[in-house]
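User: For a reading group we're discussing how well predicted structures match intuition. Take Head decoration protein. Before you show the prediction, I'll give you the sequence so everyone sees exactly what went in.
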Amino acid sequence: MKASFSTETHTPDSLIAGNAHLLVARKVTIDAGVLPRGAVLGKITSGGKYILSLQAADDGSQTPDAILAEPVDASGGDVVALAYFRGDFNTNALTIGTGHTAASITEGLRAKGITLITAQAA
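Assistant: Thanks. Here is the predicted 3D structure of Head decoration protein, as C-alpha cells, for the group to look at:
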C-alpha cells in the first residue's frame, strides 16, 4: 500500500482577534442565504434557525447572537454549520447585516461572551 499526500494552501484570515482557547462553537442550522465566515447571525425565534442578523427584522433574528465560523451556502435549503458563541473577534473581519453597525452590536454580543476588537494595522 502506497501512501499518498496532498497539499493545500492555507491563508489565515483575521477573524479571530484573541486567544483561540477561549472560543466556543456549536452546530447551528442556517435557514437561508450564502454567508461568509464571520457573518453576524441572529436566531429566528420560531424554529431556532439562524440567518444574517438584520436590524429591521422582526422574527428574533434582529438580535445578534453568534458569529459564523465557516462559509455557508444555504440557498438550496437548510445547512448545518459551526458558529462561535464565545471569543474575541476582529470587527473589521465581520459581515454585519443591514442596519447594524459595529457600535450597535458590540454591547449585546459582549453580554453573550463575544468581544469585538478593532484590529490595528501594523
